[in-house]
Design goal:
The structure holds 2 protein chains of 2 kinds. Chain A is about 55% helix and about 0% strand. Chain A is mainly α. Chain A folds into 2 domains: about 130 residues, Orthogonal Bundle (Cytochrome Bc1 Complex, Chain D, domain 2); about 100 residues, Cytochrome c-like domain (Cytochrome Bc1 Complex, Chain D, domain 2, Orthogonal Bundle), CATH 1.10.760.10. In chain A, helix 10 packs antiparallel against helix 12. Helices cover about 35% and strands about 15% of the residues of chain B. Chain B has 24 helices and 17 strands. In chain B, about 40% of the residues are buried. In chain B, a hairpin with a 6-residue loop joins strand 8 and strand 9. By secondary structure, chain B is of the alpha+beta class. In chain B, the strands form 7 sheets. Chain B has a 4-stranded mixed beta sheet with strand order 12-1-14-13. Classes of the chains: A mainly alpha, B alpha+beta. Chains A and B meet through helix 14 of A and loops of B.
Chain lengths: ~300, ~525
């Protein structure tokens, strides 16, 4: 290899190293961007409850270790019997928070610092405030176009996007691939992720929109990373999910259970009969079979 | 007229001694490989017998060859358009390994390496397919050992056309006879295997008509195995490709006779080029059953006819090939003398391997000749042996023994002439006439008048009898095998333009040359 190439490689790798040394700490400590990318789909700071709790002043309500634990793996904490965690889990409709194991301590500190900066003035948690919060949830402003205004056409288009009959603009996979929704107009969907029939009740409008446009779940995020769902599509899909949720009692349950197996067996038998008919004139045995049958086998002597 | 050249063969069945040397020569060269152990590109069958694979002549079982439809055209028996589609993933008419036989060897090392014990060590048979010890159930020619048992000779498909009485007569003690039928690929003019291949892997070589399977194109459909009525295409279960007799083309191209023919102890085999008219193939193959043999023989052209020669030259056939066709032993046996017939012409593949039917041992009466009177009245041909027995092969009628042959003519006709007994009879008469004439010349106990009468009766001249005698009994290697130069360089030019590779490296092999360090 000649010296020029060697030099240029060394120079290139050197600059790359420098670049990452500068960028990486900036990136990892940018609490705002981390929050918006990973948390904002379910949590607000002082703007009310979405799917998870409002995180305003959370740094004052909980200690830092506990926060680290619940962020990294809420289910582990719940299973370990932490009462606060269990109470929150029940309060928020038993929706599991996805594990965020990729965060370093620095990342989490950055997030908490950001939350701290964004939080309004602290109102100490009293029984009255908690009760108030439960009875009159904070009116949250709907993001994007509200689905209440959805027309039948919007719902239809949403269904087509959901089932993949219309392609998503940026080429993302259709929802049906992993999710199932009980609807007579849809074929059975995938069982890889949660059933979305009642998703609208569980997550409400903003939650669904946030999850579709900015998925917090690792697998879903990977799938849509380079193929984001645009805002029109988000609106249509949410409209369809709302419709499906409302209409769920009028749909036919597609639970085949053992019928599926029996149909398979019956189909197999039908196939056997068909092939028996097609190949009815086949050679059933060797032309020498009669000779073989008469021959003595040495096995019989042993 | 579309004149082409074909490597054709004649097997003289009267000379076959059934030694299987041809089979072994072929096996040693070509099929001594994994997956090919059960294949006998050349096999020798005992007739009457079921053959190899069992009952191969019965196309109700194996669906080989062509059949004539009502519209006068022929189609493969194994496949119609719909039927072929139905069977494309499961061919129900394929022979299975038990139809051939399970190939085996013996654990010979056990004879040497067994520890000392009270008993002698034995070499157990092991399957060449599974490698496990087996009971040998069958071999490629068990007819030879077990002919006459109900399972073999009496199940010969050719016996179906005989009446029960005729059949029974064949198996009477002291009347029973057999002959050997060596078989290789017939390199047919209308090959069913070529027609049936869905991959187009089988082809008939332009320059000499040898039918070959391209191992790189074969996709293991095995339609050729079913379609070949002679069951001479075999599936190699190890390579997943079908294989067949290649008429030792690498040997032919270097001027040597195929291994089976070269090694033939009885010198029964003849090989040579014939010129034929490809335009007639379609009509000949579709003619009525009783015209089939004549039509097939008409396809073979006279290599001395100037028109044929001119047409052959315009088709790019080399002068050396035309010359070889003129001295071809095949042309003499098949056309000039009319002594050879194709095997099972009714399969309509126009096989290019011809057989001289066997003139089986003539019937003789054996009497005690103690009475002087009887000895005096006996025909001059009759031999009175020293111990007083009279061995009499004479009959009052010249051709009487043909009619009384131990094999009914019907049986021979079923093998060689699609049921036309007259054709077989003519050939047997000719063979007999040659014998009578030679006996007149060498033994001298038959007078010239009777000998001349015999050969005139079958339209032979003394010169022809001499040549038949020479080619049958005295022929040297180069008389029996007339192999023209292969002219691969010209044959190649039929397929591709060799100028394309001129100036480049090599002749366009796919593999680039590798060098050692």
């Amino acid at each position: 290899m000649n010296t020029y190439l060697q030099n240029s490689l060394i120079i290139k790798s050197f600059f790359t190293l420098i670049f990452f040394l500068i960028i990486f700490p900036l990136y990892s400590q940018d609490g705002e961007s981390i929050f918006k990318l990973n948390c904002a789909a379910c949590h607000t700071i002082g703007k009310g409850t979405l799917i998870g709790p409002d995180l305003a002043n959370v740094h004052l309500r909980r200690n830092r270790d506990w926060l680290f634990k619940i962020i990294r793996s809420s289910q582990t904490l719940i299973n370990s019997g932490d009462e606060t965690a269990i109470a929150l889990f029940k309060q928020f409709n038993m929706v599991q928070m996805p594990d965020q194991t990729a965060f370093t301590d620095d990342d989490l500190n950055a997030i908490l610092t950001y939350i701290e900066g964004e939080s309004p003035e602290y109102i100490p948690e009293t029984e009255t405030t908690v009760a108030q919060a439960d009875e009159t949830p904070v009116e949250v402003e709907i993001t994007g176009k509200p689905v209440d205004e959805a027309t039948k056409e919007d719902i239809l288009n949403g269904r087509l996007l959901f089932s993949g009959e219309t392609r998503l603009e940026n080429g993302g996979p259709a929802c049906l691939t992993c999710h199932n929704v009980l609807n007579d107009n849809l074929i059975g969907g995938g069982l890889l992720a949660k059933d979305l029939t009642e998703a609208f009740t569980r997550l409400n409008e903003n939650g669904i929109k946030a999850m579709v446009s900015n998925p917090p779940f690792p697998v879903m995020r990977t799938a849509y990373d380079n193929h984001p769902v645009n805002s029109d599509e988000t609106y249509l899909i949410t409209a369809f999910l709302k419709f499906a949720d409302q209409e769920r009692y009028y749909q036919h349950h597609r639970d085949y259970q053992a019928r599926f197996l029996y149909t398979g067996i019956a189909g197999f038998i039908v196939l056997l009969i068909v092939f028996t008919v097609i190949w009815r004139k086949r050679k059933y045995a060797s032309v020498n079979q009669k000779i073989f049958d008469r021959q003595l086998k040495s096995d019989s002597y042993y | 007229m579309d004149v082409r050249a074909q490597m054709s063969m004649v097997f003289h069945l009267d000379k076959c001694i059934g030694c299987h040397t041809c089979s072994i020569a072929c096996k040693n060269i070509w099929t001594d490989r994994k997956g090919a152990e059960y294949q006998w590109w050349n096999n020798v069958e005992t007739k009457p017998g079921t053959g190899y694979p069992g009952k191969w002549e019965n196309q109700d079982i194996y669906k080989g060859g062509w059949i004539k439809e009502n519209n006068g055209k022929i189609r493969l028996k194994s496949a119609t358009k719909l039927g072929g589609l139905m069977n494309i993933f499961h061919n129900p008419d394929l022979p299975i390994i038990d139809d051939y036989y399970e190939p085996f060897t013996y654990k010979y090392l056990d004879l040497i390496e067994s520890p000392e014990s009270d008993d002698q060590p034995t070499a157990r048979p092991v399957s060449l397919i599974t490698g496990k010890p087996i009971d040998i159930k069958m071999g490629p020619n068990w007819d030879d050992d077990l002919s006459g048992t109900p399972d073999y000779a009496r199940k010969d498909p050719n016996l179906d056309k005989l009446s029960p009485a005729e059949r029974e007569a064949m198996f009477q003690l002291e009347r029973m006879a057999f002959f050997y039928l060596p078989r290789i690929c017939n390199h047919c003019l209308n090959p069913a295997c070529v027609a049936s291949c869905p991959s187009g892997a089988i082809y008939k070589r332009g320059e000499d008509g040898i039918v070959l399977i391209n191992q790189k194109v074969c996709r293991a459909w095995r339609m050729c195995v079913t379609s070949c009525p002679y069951k001479k295409s075999y599936y190699n279960w190890h390579t997943g490709k079908s294989e067949k007799c290649i008429l030792c083309y690498p040997r032919l191209e270097s001027g040597q006779a195929p291994a089976c023919m070269h090694s033939c102890v009885g010198r029964i085999r003849y090989l040579g080029v014939v010129l034929y008219d490809a335009d007639q193939i379609a009509d000949a193959a579709a003619d009525d059953n009783n015209n089939l043999v004549d039509r097939q023989l008409n396809i073979i052209l006279d290599p001395f006819n100037p028109r044929v020669i001119a047409s052959a030259q315009s088709n790019g056939i080399d002068d050396s090939t035309i010359k070889a066709a003129q001295i071809s032993p095949i042309y003499k046996f098949v056309k000039e003398w009319g002594l050879a017939l194709p095997l099972h012409p009714e399969f309509r593949t126009l096989p290019m391997l011809f057989y001289v039917p066997p003139l089986l041992p003539v019937m003789a009466s054996l009497k005690e000749a103690k009475k002087e009177k009887l000895a005096k009245n006996a025909d001059p041909i009759a031999k009175i042996w020293n111990d007083g027995w009279l061995y009499d092969t004479s009959t009052k009628d010249l051709w009487g023994t043909i009619e009384q042959a131990r094999f009914p003519l019907k049986y021979m006709a079923s093998l060689f002439s699609a049921g036309d007994e007259e054709k077989v009879k003519q050939i047997l008469k000719k063979l007999m006439a040659v014998r009578i004439y030679r006996r007149h010349l060498t033994v001298g106990d038959i007078d010239k008048k009777k000998a001349d009468l015999a050969i005139q009766d079958v339209n032979l001249t003394p010169d022809m009898v001499d040549s038949i005698y020479y080619l049958t009994s005295l022929a040297k290697f180069d008389d029996r095998f007339v192999i023209p130069a292969a002219h691969r360089e010209q044959a190649m030019e039929m397929v591709e333009f060799t100028g394309d590779t001129k100036g480049s490296i090599g002749f366009g092999f796919n593999e680039s040359p590798t060098r050692s360090a």
